[in-house]
Amino acid sequence: MLRIGEMYLVAAETAPGAETESYWDAFRSSRNEAASNLPADPALAKLEIIKEYRKDLFAEGRAFFAYKRINAPKANVLWMPAAAVLNYQPPVPLTEFAN
Question: Residue 35's pLDDT is what?
């Protein structure tokens, strides 16, 4: 299941050009936040969208899928211990392979 806010953020993340701004504006207005434009630089825009994922999906475990989709570096993942290794692919058990 997806939340409508998550759908707007995914659409803003993946939409081309001007559509990105329309999804971003729809998301911000639904949260009663002031209208703002995403940065022109794609890397900065991605960081801005990730910040909104953090706020909207706080403590639900859903932000993992956003981090995985964009292959977020360790610095962008909140509350990551310094010694932790970031790996988005879970290990596959060797006993469950079908030949």
Answer: 76
